User: What shape does this take?
Amino acid sequence: MINPLFAIVFFVYLTVNQSVKTRRKNANDIISSLQSEISHGFTKEKFVVDARDFSRNRSLSFSVTLLFMVNFLTKSLSLEIVNFLSFLKRKEIPQKSFSKSAFVQARKKIKPEVFSYLNEKLIKEFYTDNSAVKTTFSGKRILSVDGSRLTLPRTWELEEIYGRTKNQTETYIIQGKACVLYDVLNRIAIDGILSSVDTDERIQAKQLLNSCRKGDLIIYDRGFASFDFMYEHKERQLDFVMRMRLDFSRVVKDFVAGGQASQVLAIYPGKNTNLKEKKYDENTSLTVRLLRIVLPGGEIEVLASSLEDENQYKHKIFKDLYFERWKIETYYDELKNKLKIEEFSGYSNQSILQDFYATLLVSNIQSLIVEEINEELQEEKDAKKYRYKVNTSLSYGFLKDRIIGLLFSNSDMNKTMEELKALFKAHLIPIRPQRSNKRNIGKYRARAKPIISKNQKDSL
Assistant: This one.
């Protein structure tokens, strides 16, 4: 449960730097930056596999292929094509019919990185001169990095690239390890990686640090804590909050035994650390701040942070600050259970990566619209028992097909946006405060598909 005092302090932090921004950008402003890139094929030369691809006037152009791929392809391709063409016809957007085979051949000509490029463009537009951007501690973005396994189609190609996941028997599945850099305040996926299932999350996280900017504050679970990883943040001038294992090192054990709430200490590389090709040696130290967090049940957590100033960063803010990391967990829930990211539209690695990066892009488009509406709802004062927010699951269902109207310049974007907002506002759900559910970590150990509860029916 969020501490009311922290909520007030957090709000003050969020508003500190807003006066220097020029204006508040709405979702239309930001999403429209992609229209010319997609509709006019400005990205074609960069992201076709061969320079001769899409040079002829075919039924499936580069732009139409992109639009089709971002349209939540979770059903049979034949059915998706029929629905896609029907929607274009209703909107009076000219488009020749095409077959499933034509689409499969067309997507082979497009590099998956095109969706990463479009996502970067969307993100840059969002963070540039925009008073709607939420930051804290005098302008810091609050980010989180975490990984999750995605179950992939069982093919020889994907098994070779991503590896097997086995239990005690000979039964196995193919899984990849996704890792996402997520802005927890603005609910934006800044970057993501899909790697082999046995890839160390810290290796993925280091790559994602390239998408951070100086001064960002990044929150991590205990699986990321290491001297090397903290050193990497110091080198890049990035701040961090990491949960530590209670037996992480002698320094952490002594801190736990000492009973102090907060202490600034020096830590060193572990005795068995491989220092080959490292920028530091066994005598190199890092100054970090350890914080004791007592949970409602009496359990103790230890956080390590680069925010050393105890006057500027009070101990009481860290419990709720670390709780912000939970939003990346709910983001993975959206990807898997609402966006159906594991229901891939193809079997090749190229198709898998196309779907993965396209899903991150679509999730950001949805988030921009939903967050804008949620903020409008919070500003409304009425006599209702609860405050309300957009139903996330239904919002993706309403975005199906209509995303074409947002991204295709031949359609009326404003009309589509108003239609979406009206649908979102017509299906709100109440925000019930002080609710908590005990986490059942082992409920999916059997790897069986979970039964969908009554309030979690599929919307795609």
Q: What stands out?
A: The mean pLDDT is 87. The longest strand covers residues 172-183. Residues 377 and 383 are 13 Å apart (CA to CA). The two ends are 32 Å apart (CA to CA).
